[in-house]
Specification:
By secondary structure, the protein is of the alpha+beta class. Among the domains are: 99 residues; 179 residues; 296 residues, 6 Propeller (Neuraminidase), CATH 2.120.10. Helix content is 46%, strand content 15%. Strands 1-5-6-4-2-3 form a 6-stranded mixed sheet, sandwiched between helices. A 5-stranded mixed sheet has the order 7-32-31-30-29, with no helix packed on it. Strands 8-35-34-33 form a 4-stranded antiparallel sheet, with no helix packed on it. Strand 22 and strand 23 form a beta hairpin. Helix 6 runs parallel beside helix 10. The longest helix is centred in the first third of the chain and has 45 residues. It starts with 14 loop residues before the first helix and ends in a 7-residue tail after the last strand.
């Protein structure tokens, strides 16, 4: 009966049967790819657990862990697309959660990237595809980021699948390739926002190619052809005007560079420019004209005869609904206001309109195919962005927020790398072989194009040529890859955010292009002739010749060239050079004899192949060193904010302490805002982990282990030091960035200096910075690497005593208990008046320091980082403001300009004296800010006027001016006009000696009080004559711990002899009686009216109330206290 149906003897056509029945022939090519995939598995998966989880990986691994734990995940454009989070969570589910399994998805996609090159054999050629696969395997960027929890590893195979689908559809017109295109594009958009850039590149190429085909097409009516051309020109012109205007008008706030915009915050986005609007209108009108002309001329043929149009419609209609952020931002709406229905309504309406346009175009095209394409694209898109339908807001964040956020972020220019960052830094250091291979490809491609043009010229000379037919079933793959590589390099170089990992997107097309070019180069060599007698010997001789010549060049252009002297080192260099020269001559002679009869071109091409092979070895070596040796160091340029080894070393110690003291991971451990990365991830299984942010409190004394980044050390050291051991580590570091501000003069200096050349060679070849440090006079040892941030691991001494190998020595097993001498009398006191906030307008402050009260009760404030003085009345209202930035080291600091003024004092006659700290001088003004005079210069105590960072000034009852010359560890005495009278102090630990004197005060008896900071005491000096002061007493300060630039205490003395001083990094104010007895104190960290961010300057008014500058909170505070006796 089956025979009657005609199917009884037919072979099965089910796809699974076809796969099972297929026979794969294992030839040398297949074996080669199998070997490459095995090597890819080994190189991508080996040792994934060793590298510290880096800064940019933490968000991905932590939120993936929350998803795997069942705590959900909500897409946030800040951390790119959701695909990676789902894949990493799946890896945790299958294999457990640790550093290695977090990197499994990236490694897997890295292996796929090597294997997928196989499908490009038809365009690259067999040899070219094998070369491209090898380049993919050994590429430093492809290897490193296939072992890194970033999106780049996932993007590579998805992009290659997209290109594969495009080329195959053009050739076959099979709808399945449109579905592959839709799925790969959907996953790409769900991976990273670079999908918008790549899709724009593809659409631009396809559109231009389609336009060219249509122009070359035979039109039945010439007026329609002209209409089409007019529309095309109008669209191109409008788009160009809008784009160039946007690029020109996109301002970059220098204060925002390296800042990450918080989604939902107010955006520094553009508003609709009339020129941009005009360009957009012209482009839209042009598209309408094009559409009318094409429909009128070709009608239904548009559905059947133009595969490029099909691709444009598929990619265009899938992308269009995701572009709502563009018109929203240009009009001035906030596309990130997801949580505000009222604000987001207009943007949502834009999405609906764009979706409607896409549906209309798709249904008018081929409605059945378009519905399948749309389903193939939007089903995975919505499933991923909504976290399998558990996060409805994901539709908004995916369709609008993804592009909207990163448009803003590119305007911020995070990292602010130079435009030549890829061309002159990343590619020459890592991807030089694909770059050279791409140039070879362009050369071969140009020659092939030129050879094909010859017949065309002949045809055109024929007076009766045949009608030209257009081949619409072939895709110009080579032209596309050349275009892809060039536009990637140019586009990413001018996009706002230039980061090292973006090099992956530039290297990918170069690898494919280099594969084709080097493949053609290899195929052009007569290997059969070389295999004949002596051929491989000639190859060996050429290889030795190349190595010898390279060695000679390194010697000649190095810092110690040959034939320069008779010292032993010079003789060694000369001997090495002569040996290389001798080997080179011998090789040339051998090649001449053995290759007799060979054309010179064969020898030079063989030399070229061997040179490329050497470059491949150097590339593989660079990749291996980056991935397996230098992975935790800042010596590599393919990372940016990169975790050092320190966090993992500290983690190992924490885990050891926990197991030895609690039996598991139950130890109480606290971490701050700086160490959140990577301890957010690493402490996920510690039940008693505490995040205390940037606000440490004494409650931390209950925690035996504390982690802190360097900005918070001083806050902790003030109350932890005597009870905790601390261990310091590098936490995060950045590559050396001397490539900034390159000029032709700098380049010429580097290339003409033998020392520079050798230093740069050492960096390029070995990542060795020793010679470069010697040339530049800087220390590039890892211990002192800059830029970098550090962290400390604090271990309480009683815990260290239990496991004494963490202590300094066994003798400290029972540490003394630290007692804060002031703790029981620290009060909570509300300020009676708070004035100011952050900013540069009058009444706003930027890190204010010194403060003084004038004879009339008005207030003078050293507004330090605004480089000015503010004069306020007792109610906090601004009277006047004077001063601006001027830096004497830059040769531009005229009278009345400041470079971080710190100290300020007012004489009884109203004259205002200002310590212009980093211009190393004192300036004085009238009460209204009129400049009167200045004195002082930078120096190391060679004269009274030679200052090193003067921090405070005070006027005594005799009208003399006293200045703390902080860096020179002395107090200098001047008259009212700046004439030097004398000095006292000088470095010392005994009474009268000073170490980092800062605050000054004078009591009613004329005695001078000095905040002797690093000796942690207040000293009292008594007037012994016109220019002499002797130390008569002192008392210790149980504070002032730390030697940071911010920990500079000021003091004030009331008429009754009460002395109040700030303890900046202990975040408090301490007041003492005339004999040093502690009276009261107040303050804790915060921004409330009873708290300080960093108390610095302090002054009494006539009623014995206190004014204090809260520097970190950019404000001044008034406390009406009963400190003095009536």
């Amino acid at each position: 009966m089956m025979d009657d149906q005609g199917n009884g003897n037919q072979p099965s056509t089910h796809w699974l049967d076809q796969v099972l029945d297929s026979k794969i022939q294992i030839n040398r090519e297949v074996f080669f790819y199998i070997l490459l995939i095995v090597l890819a598995i080994l190189t991508r998966f080996s040792g994934l657990e060793h590298r510290v989880m880096s800064h940019d990986e933490n968000t991905h691994v932590y939120f993936s862990w929350l998803l795997e734990q069942g705590r959900g995940y909500s897409h946030d454009p800040l951390s790119h697309g959701p695909l990676q989070f789902h894949l990493v969570a799946l890896s945790y589910f299958l294999f457990g959660d640790n550093d290695a399994t977090a990197r499994f998805p990236a490694a897997l996609f890295g292996v796929i990237a090597v294997g997928i090159v196989w499908v490009f054999r038809r365009w690259l050629g067999r040899t070219g595809a094998m070369v491209a696969a090898v380049l993919m395997l050994i590429s430093p960027y492809m290897l490193f980021y296939s072992r890194y929890v970033r999106n780049e590893a996932l993007v590579v195979p998805l992009v290659m699948a997209t290109v594969w689908a495009i080329t195959r559809y053009v050739e076959t017109r099979e709808s399945k390739w449109l579905y592959v295109l839709a799925i790969s594009s959907s996953l790409h958009f769900a991976t990273k926002e670079t999908a918008f850039i790549f899709t724009a590149q593809v659409l631009l190429f396809l559109g231009a190619l389609l336009a060219w085909q249509l122009i070359k097409e035979k039109w039945s009516r010439s007026n329609l052809r002209l209409t089409f051309l007019a529309g095309f020109v109008l669209t191109a012109l409008g788009s160009l005007v809008a784009l160039l205007t946007y690029v020109r008008e996109r301002g970059v706030d220098p204060e925002l560079t390296s800042e990450v915009i918080d989604p939902g915050s107010s955006l520094p986005g553009a508003v609709l420019s009339p020129v941009i609007a005009l360009g957009g209108i012209l482009a839209f009108l042009g598209l309408i004209i094009i559409g009318v002309a094409l429909i009128s001329e070709f009608g239904r043929r548009l559905r059947t005869d133009f595969p490029l149009l099909d691709l444009v419609i598929v990619l265009g209609t899938m992308t269009l609904p995701q572009l709502a952020a563009v018109p929203a931002m240009l009009i001035g709406w906030d596309p990130l206001a997801y949580n505000d229905p009222e604000a987001f309504r207009s943007t949502a309406l834009t999405v609906v309109v764009l979706v409607g346009i896409s549906i209309a175009i798709g249904m008018a095209w081929k409605w059945r195919e378009w519905l399948i394409v749309a389903g193939s694209f939007f089903v995975p898109f919505i499933v991923l962005y909504t976290t399998i339908f558990t996060n409805g807001q994901g539709v908004a964040t995916g369709l609008v927020g993804s592009l909207g956020y990163w448009l803003v972020q590119h305007g911020v220019e995070r990292g602010s790398q130079p435009h030549y960052y890829y061309l002159l830094v990343q590619i020459p250091i890592y991807e030089f072989l694909p770059a050279i291979g791409s140039l070879i490809a362009v050369w071969f491609g140009f020659n092939r194009w030129r050879s094909k043009r010859v017949p065309e010229v002949t045809e055109e000379s024929n007076p009766d040529p045949e009608p030209r037919t257009i081949d619409r079933s072939s895709f110009p793959f080579l032209a596309f890859v050349v275009y892809w590589a060039l536009t990637s390099l140019v586009g990413y170089s001018y996009a706002g955010e230039r980061m090292p990992w973006i090099t992956v997107h530039i290297a990918l097309p170069m690898i494919l292009l280099a594969g084709w070019g080097i493949g053609k180069f290899l195929d052009s060599i007569e290997w059969q002739e070389i295999r004949k007698v002596n051929g491989w010997i000639v190859v060996g001789l050429i290889l030795f010749l190349l190595i010898s010549v390279i060695q000679m060049l390194v010697s000649l252009f190095g810092a110690d060239p040959p034939l320069q002297g008779t010292e032993i080192d010079q003789l060694y260099t000369t001997a090495g050079f002569l040996a290389s020269l001798g080997v080179s001559i011998a090789c040339v002679i051998g090649i001449a004899k053995l290759a007799e009869g060979w054309p010179l071109s064969r020898i030079t091409r063989l030399a070229g192949v061997l040179f490329l092979a050497l470059l491949a070895l150097v590339t593989a070596r660079a990749a291996f060193r980056a991935a397996y040796i230098n992975y935790d160091y800042a010596t590599e340029f393919l990372v940016y904010a990169h975790s050092a080894r320190g966090p993992k070393t500290a983690l190992e110690q924490i885990e050891d302490l926990s197991i030895r003291t609690t039996g598991n991971l139950d130890i109480m451990v606290a971490y701050d805002n700086e160490t959140t990365y990577p301890y957010w991830w690493y402490l996920r299984n510690y039940k008693n982990a505490l995040y205390y942010g940037a606000s440490p409190s004494r409650d931390l004394l209950n925690y035996p282990v504390i982690l802190a980044g360097d900005p918070n050390w001083s806050k902790l050291d003030s109350f932890l030091t005597d009870q905790y051991y601390s261990f310091e580590y590098h936490r995060i570091w950045w590559p050396m960035q001397d490539y900034y501000n390159l000029t032709w003069d700098r380049i010429r200096e580097m290339l003409t200096s033998a020392e520079y050349r050798e230093a740069l060679w050492d960096i390029w070849f070995d990542r060795n910075y020793t010679a470069y440090g010697e040339v530049t006079g800087r220390d590039y040892s890892l211990e002192n690497w800059s830029p970098s941030n550090r962290m400390k691991l604090y271990v309480r001494k009683d815990i260290a005593g239990l496991v004494w190998d963490y202590g300094v020595a066994p003798v400290v097993l029972e540490p003394e208990e630290f007692v804060d001498p002031y703790l029981d009398r620290i009060e909570v006191i509300n300020a009676d008046l708070v004035v100011g906030l952050s900013g540069s307008a009058p009444g706003q402050f930027a890190r204010p320091r010194g403060i003084a009260v004038g004879p009339d009760g008005s207030i003078y404030v050293a507004d330090t980082m605004n480089h000015r003085i503010q004069h306020l009345n007792p109610d906090g209202e601004v009277i006047s403001v004077w001063g601006q930035y001027g830096n004497i080291e830059e040769g531009n600091a005229p009278a009345g300009t400041f470079n971080e003024p710190w100290g300020i004092a007012v004489a009884p006659d109203g004259t205002v004296y200002v310590a212009d700290t980093w211009n190393h001088r004192i300036q004085y003004f009238t009460a209204d800010g009129v400049f009167l005079g200045m004195f002082g210069y930078f120096g190391q105590a060679s004269a009274p006027e030679a200052f090193w960072g003067p921090r405070d000034v005070v006027v005594d009852s005799r009208g003399r001016l006293l200045v703390t010359d902080t860096g020179n560890k002395r107090v200098v005495i001047f008259d009212a006009q700046g004439v030097a009278l004398g000095e006292f102090g000088g470095f010392g630990l005994d009474l009268g000696g000073l170490d980092e004197p800062v605050g000054l005060g004078v009591d009613a008896q004329g005695r001078v009080y000095v905040a002797d900071t690093w000796n942690r005491r207040i000293q009292i000096f008594e007037d012994r004559g016109e220019a002499a002061f002797d130390a008569i007493s002192e008392w210790p300060i149980g504070g002032w711990i730390g030697q940071s630039l911010d920990n500079k205490p000021y003091l004030a003395v009331s008429d009754d002899g009460v002395v109040c001083t700030t303890d900046p990094e202990s975040i408090r104010v301490l007041c003492f009686g005339v004999n040093g007895e502690f009276l009261r104190g107040w303050g804790e960290f915060g921004a409330e009216v009873w708290q300080f961010g960093l108390p610095v300057g302090i002054a009494f008014d006539s009623s014995c109330s206190v004014w204090i500058t809260d520097s970190a909170n950019d404000r001044i505070m008034f406390f009406d206290l009963e400190l003095c006796e009536d």
